[in-house]
Amino acid sequence: MLARIPTIRPNGKRGVNILVINPAEETPLPEKQDLASQKTAERVDKPEQTETLEPVKHVSSAAKPAIDTDYLPTYIPKAFIQLSQTFLNVKDILGAWKRVYYAYQQTKLSYPVDHYITIISQTFKQAVFAKQNGSIKKTFLAYFYGGMLAAFQQTVRKEVMDDPATLYYDWLNN
């Protein structure tokens, strides 16, 4: 169907291959009547086999036992686990907390991550609402990470403005 023709460059090295598409040999399709007669001939030729019923072995529906949230690492706050366990499985809860911690590390907040649990829970609720509305295009965890990053950046701005050690220059009144 395809023919390859190698080419040689002026310097003697091998060049680009040229692919030529050859016309395919056309075979006519069998008529509908021929197909129907073949099927009936197959049915007549084969004697009916009696089916022997064998007992079906029941396989447990869950190959792996479901892991409870008690087995999650202790560095994940209980408030976050309780909030997310109704919407996520254990693996996704761990993934969501990792996204929270990545966003926390990127923004370099001044307090430990446990201090911001209200912001984390509010962002999680907003992400769940977006998921249920169908406005998340890719994955839930990616959307949640973006929301956490934006919320933490907003918190950093607020902390900087509230800090009395931050110097302000009032350029309007000077």
Descriptive account of the structure:
There is one protein chain. This protein starts with a strand and ends in a 12-residue tail after the last helix. By secondary structure, it is mainly α. The chain has 5 helices and 2 strands. Helix 4 (117-133) packs antiparallel against helix 5 (140-162). The protein has a two-stranded antiparallel ribbon with strand order 1-2. The chain is 45% helix and 5% strand.
Helix and strand layout, with pairings?
Blueprint: E1 2-5, E2 18-21, H1 32-45, H2 78-84, H3 90-107, H4 117-133, H5 140-162
Antiparallel strand pairs: 1-2
Helix pairs in contact: 2-4, 3-5, 4-5
Give the low-pLDDT segments: 50-63
Order of helices and strands: EEHHHHH
Radius of gyration: 33 Å
Q: Give the helix level as a range of percent.
A: 40-55%
- Shape annotation: elongated
Query: Main β-sheet, in a few words?
Result: 2 strands, antiparallel
Strand order of the largest sheet: 1-2
Report the count of strand segments. 2
The chain-level structural class is mainly alpha
**What is the terminal-to-terminal distance?**
83 Å
Please count the helical segments: 5
Strand content: under 5%
Give the averaged pLDDT, no decimals.
78
